[in-house]
# Entry
Amino acid sequence: MTATKKNIVNIFLLSALAFFSFLMLRIIALYIPVQNDAAFLQLKQQYIHITEWRVAFFTHVFSSILALMAGFTQFSKTFLRKYPKMHRQFGYVYVINILMVTGPAGLLMSFYANGGIGSRIGFIILSVLWIATTSIALYKAVKKKFTSHRIWMIRSFALTLSAVTLRIWKVLLANFTEIPPMDRYRIIAWLGWTLNLLMAECIIYFYISKRPRQT
# Structure
């Protein structure tokens, strides 16, 4: 890749990071100061009295931005080459956040998702896959199998981005279809992450075609 192309890619990635971070910060701002009837919580009043759900919700809301921003740093070869120590540090922030904070909180919330059993299964699978792919990525890094590590990180981050894409789909379906709100939610529970994962597999396919895969 030429220097010009690298610069274009870097600008695109930084722009994407800024855009997604802005979207997430706008969402987080809705819950500051902490209130039990703000924004999305207006639809969850039947669960707000459940302490573990309430704690999981606010934990998920306020910690998800860390996964998003730390995750972006893991895919720049220039950043890795110039700042390998910082790359590892951000990587640990990403992994610890998902495995010990945001991931478990999201999994608990999945059991209370709107839209009935269909939505709940969709979000449960998303949470389990998110934790699993991140765990495998960490394992591959510890074993110094860096090609496999990168592949599993692509899958993990694709699922991380579901926090953004499901909201994009929500806006698109609300403005360009006449699907009833609860049916839209059931669709988004699956559409918000399955297409991300499919795109990740396409990226992985072309990535593997250029480099031999480590097991």
Remarks:
- The longest helix spans residues 181-210.
